[in-house]
Amino acid sequence: MTLAPLTRPARLRPGARIAVVSPSGPVPADRLEAGLDVLRGWGLDPAEAPHVRDVHPELDYLAGTDEARARDLQEAWCDPSVDAVICARGGYGVHRMVDLVDWAAMRAAGPKVFIGYSDITVLHEAFARRMGLATLHGPMAGTETFLKDPDTQESLRATLFEPDSVRTLGLPTARVLVPGRARGITYGGCVSLLAADIGTPHARTSARGGLLVIEDTTEDPYSIDRILTQLLRAGALDGIAGVACGSWAGCGPYEKVRAVLADRLGPLGVPVVEELGFGHGPTALTIPLGVPAVLDAPADGGPATLTMEGPALV
Q1: pLDDT score of 85
Q2: Any catalytic annotation for residue 154?
Q3: Does the annotation count 155 as an active-site position?
Q4: Residues 6 or more apart whose Cβ sits within 8 Å of residue 14
Q5: Which of 48, 215, 219, 275 is catalytic?
């Protein structure tokens, strides 16, 4: 099966209501409040889900119970007054709640903007597979990068309100690992979460024609090797058109990470760009998922970029 473009939700306008949910780990209150202030500064109307500040009574790495986290997401999505949903943070926990969501009810509520990254990769895949909806791999309201980095904030703000202005993505750090040019449909996220999805009931069985965007954090080079090898052995990368790599924060000396990426991805024979500028790094560009794009990895040393063929939001 070849990937096809997904339904794009509507761009936001001043006054739009954006629900904040915690599908994974608990968010520090001070960071959440600072993030809400940023959203208000953009003219948005942020609304906290009922359990967004919860901490599980026994498993304190979870933002409340699985049922409460799933219910918050579903109720926010199905609320007709809500235009967008942004996650407060990642961490761990989405795999525990994703199958508790009533995806038929979510589909019936129609398309909206959804934003997150890291553990939220599982939900990006669910929105794509179960709803046919394009989403935004972008910073979350209660994360340090969002609060402290102006470029990260501006990338998300522009994508939400002026998506035509941010169709070409790539920081000056972006370099060519394998040269070439490819067109495909963007998909992906945190690579360890993509591997963890393999074998689950709604996992992607083909990514033919896809432009894979991947990043991760605190995974040693051998662990990145294992993750990529699992994806390769499972056939999950068969037929992909190209790969855009983001940050690998806390994953060891980058030259060792780079060697793993070259060893595992190079034999695919597709263009590969490294350090494009998204994920857990100091600057996190917002990457639309589920939309047609072109990956440029010029052999002559020119700028490596990922360019959306149209705006992320309509």
Answers
A1: 99
A2: no
A3: no
A4: 42, 43, 44
A5: 215
Look at residue 1 in the predicted model and tell me its pLDDT.
72
Per-residue confidence (pLDDT) for residue 242, from 0 to 100: 98
Block means of pLDDT (10 residues each) for the chain, 314 residues, are 94 98 98 98 98 98 98 98 98 98 98 98 98 98 97 98 98 97 98 97 92 98 98 97 98 98 98 98 97 97 94 98
Amino acid at 259: A
Closest CA to 32 of 154, 141, 149: 141
275: left (phi over 0), alpha (psi -120 to 50) or beta: left
| Cα separation values, 43 from 13, 16, 22, 160, 230, Å | 8, 8, 22, 12, 44
Annotated active-site residue 215? The verdict is: yes
Active-site residue (options: 22, 24, 118, 247): 118
CA diameter of the chain:
56
**Alpha carbon distance, N-terminus to C-terminus of the chain:** 26
For residue 63 the two structure tokens come to 């933002």
Task: Name the active-site residue from 51, 124, 137, 280.
Answer: 280
Q: Which of 73, 69, 71 is nearest to 61 (CA)?
A: 69
Distance CA 14, CA 160 (A): 10
Coil, strand or helix at 131: helix
Beta partners for residue 18, in sequence order: 46, 84
User: How many other CB atoms are there within 10 angstroms of residue 198's CB atom?
Assistant: 15
Distance in angstroms (rounded) separating the CA atoms of residues 170 and 266: 21
- Alpha carbon 251 to chain centroid, angstroms: 19
Burial class (CB in 10 A: 0-12, 13-18, 19+), 310: middle
- Cβ(275)–Cβ(246) below 8 Å: yes
Which residue type is seen at 283?
T
